[in-house]
Design brief:
Protein name: Actin-related protein 8
Helix content: 25-40%
Family: Belongs to the actin family.
InterPro entries: Actin (IPR004000), ATPase_NBD (IPR043129)
């Protein structure tokens, strides 16, 4: 046999051995990593960042741009679709209204929250050392009721969107300014960070995804000036919430891949981690106050701590709605204002950004003015006198009962995956096979000591280092056993469980009692609306080590546009220091709240972090290509995502 024949024979033998190992792994349930060798070498070349599009979809604002852009394009994340039939009933997704506001207990809860806010305002001294003198709404109401608007111009020079060519849909500001009489339905495809799936018109998953595809495609084509036929040369980085719906994220990433060719590629990453990239911080407790939700997460060296994730179902829109309620108590002179009118909602949001603050040194009644400009109406000038209303509204973030939301889930924690039919080898499968392997290894370990003296067996079973029994509550609570993998169970780490149940309580419970106790506590916890300061303390307290907690206290990063009030940084810092555990006051050298890192606007930071991610060498291994997705499906997200899918 020649040398060449021997090498060929050896190669065949090695191939057979690899096939045998692969079969054994499949029988044992071992996942083999997806080898990216199927990607053509041309796709593994150095990526040019000017051909990477970063998409940060928010509930109210879409931020999108090339990774090389200084600022992203920001447009209202809304679409108006033309009625298919004349005389069709009009549907419009609400802007500031939400479920749970018209309950019998709503007004009482709102009043109780306002009393707590007033007490907090009075208890905190001003920088002069004096207490703030409260100002009642009656003092401003008597003046505001007498105010009549002054006409600035007979025409506001603001027009409704021109629909003369009967476009099938309008996007962004064009959708906001579409006339109610033109026969268009207005849809916001995202609500509180999730796809806006509802039983009404345009609320199916297919319709919502079609809205996203139309909005993103329109902005990329018109605003970024990238023809859709040229998207085959571009890649995408998609920012997603820290607590996400797996099915929704899977569908959202397909929105970009679907409009491209097989060379398209995408990276999916979490908003909190990208916020640390954008701010240049290695570790931070990221507090993202958006328009409709507030999410918190502790990030350390580019890794999001799962147990620290928390999502609160309120944000800047709830502050705007509360401010409108306080304005009405003070005799708001623009009496035609309605929360069901999207242009009035836009005006109220502008007034909140203009007047509201968190600076307690500003006290007493003050006179202000504002203008209204609506299509087919004159431009008007209003004068208004306001007192504590400007401070009370943003303080609702710390006293959420002021929002008057009843019967809604106000706090969300990360759940264990419910499973995916497209991904049979998910974590449930791994937990099940791991449990069987543990049992088989335990049985074999029990058989081995049979030849040993009885004392050795007893010492192994009863000693401190003995193996845990299947009923061990530690295994059950940490999700290591089969019972821990049941669908719908909240995944709590030791720190998270201890935060909710109290130190040592979990150890005293039997497994069945532990699960029922945990479920009851989780239900109570999620029904409560934590204030922003308490949520930050809870998130940090769920970190595993004191060293990590110390890092988080010294770097609290506030991003998003929901807390952009004058004095917010000092106000939040004061509340954190006063409420943090006394033991950490001695350990933490400096508690710091960061609201404008590198002098950037807070709403920009997460998007900027996505742009930074495109430049990192480590991101080369995170790209998911269309042909890979078609071959492996959702498994690609588990293999390539930088977070635990």
């Amino acid at each position: 046999m020649t040398q060449a024949e021997r090498e060929q024979e050896n190669g065949k033998e090695r191939e057979k051995e690899r096939e045998k190992e692969k079969d054994k792994d499949q029988q044992r349930g071992v996942k083999r990593p997806i080898v990216p060798a199927s990607i053509p070498e041309s796709l593994q070349e150095q990526i040019q960042t000017n051909f990477v599009v970063v998409i940060h979809p928010g509930s109210r604002t879409l931020r999108i741009g090339r990774a090389t852009d200084t600022l992203p394009v920001s447009v209202p994340h809304v679409i108006a679709r033309k009625h298919k039939q004349s005389g069709q009933p009009k549907h419009e997704d609400p802007w500031l209204l939400r479920d749970g506001l018209n309950k019998p207990e709503s007004n009482e809860q709102r009043q109780n929250g306002l009393k707590m806010v007033e007490q907090a305002i009075w208890s905190k001294k001003m920088s002069t050392g004096l207490r703030r003198t409260p100002v009642s709404a009656e003092q401003a109401r008597s003046y505001n009721r007498q105010v009549r608007p002054a006409v600035l111009d007979s025409s506001s020079r603001l027009k409704w969107t021109n629909t003369g060519q009967q476009p099938q849909y309008l996007v962004g500001d064009e959708a906001v300014y579409v006339s109610p009489s033109d026969g268009y339905d207005v849809h916001w495809p995202l609500v509180r960070g999730h796809l806006n799936v509802h039983p009404g018109p345009g609320g199916s998953l297919t319709a919502v995804l079609a809205d996203l595809e139309a909005i993103w495609g329109h902005v990329i084509n018109k605003q970024l000036e990238i023809p859709l036929k040229d998207l085959k040369y571009y890649r995408c980085i998609l920012l997603v919430p820290d607590i996400y719906n797996r099915q929704h994220i899977k569908e959202m990433q397909m929105v970009f891949i679907r409009v491209s060719v097989p060379h398209a590629a995408i990276i999916v990453h979490q908003e909190s981690v990208c916020a640390t990239f954008g701010s240049g911080l290695s570790s931070a407790c990221v507090v993202d106050v958006g328009d409709q939700k507030t999410s918190l997460c502790c990030v350390e060296d580019g890794v999001s701590h799962r147990n620290s994730r928390l999502c609160l179902s309120y944000g800047g829109a709830d502050v705007t709605r509360t401010f409108f309620w306080l304005l009405q108590r003070a005799g708001f002179p623009y009496r035609e204002c309605q929360l069901s009118n999207r242009l009035d909602c836009q005006l109220l949001q502008q007034l909140k950004e203009l007047f509201c603050h968190l600076n307690q040194d500003i006290s007493g009644l003050q006179d202000h003015e504002f203008r209204t400009r609506f299509p087919e109406a004159p431009a008007l000038l209003y004068h208004i006198r306001l007192g504590d209303e400007k401070l009370q509204a943003p303080m609702g973030l710390f006293y959420p009962t002021t929002f008057g939301i009843v019967g809604q889930k106000m706090t969300s924690l990360p759940y264990r995956s419910q499973g995916d039919p497209e991904d049979p080898h998910d974590e449930h499968y791994l937990l099940g096979t791991q449990s069987k392997q543990d049992q088989s290894s335990k049985c074999s370990a029990d058989r081995k000591p049979l030849s040993r003296p009885a004392g050795a067996v007893d010492s192994e079973l009863t000693g401190p280092g003995g193996s845990a029994e299947p009923s061990d509550p530690h295994r059950l609570s940490s999700g290591g056993g089969g019972a821990g993998g049941s669908q719908g169970e909240m995944e709590l780490g030791p720190a998270q469980a201890e935060c909710l149940m109290g130190p040592g309580e979990a150890e005293e419970q039997q497994p069945s009692a532990l699960l029922s106790r945990k479920s009851a506590i989780m239900g109570q916890f999620e029904s409560k609306a934590l204030g922003l300061d308490k949520a930050i303390l809870h998130s940090i307290d769920c970190c595993a080590s004191d060293e990590t907690k110390r890092k988080m206290y010294s770097s609290i990063l506030v991003v998003g546009g929901g807390l952009m009030f004058h004095g917010a940084q000092e106000f939040l810092l004061h509340r954190i220091i006063n409420k943090m555990p006394p033991s950490f006051r001695r350990l933490v050298d400096n508690v710091e709240v960061i609201t404008r890192p590198k002098d950037m606007d807070p709403w920009l930071i997460s998007w900027k972090g996505g742009a930074v991610l495109a430049c990192l060498d480590t991101s080369q291994e995170m790209w998911i290509h269309q042909r890979e997705w078609q071959r492996f499906g959702v498994r690609m997200l588990r293999e390539r995502a930088a977070f635990v899918w």
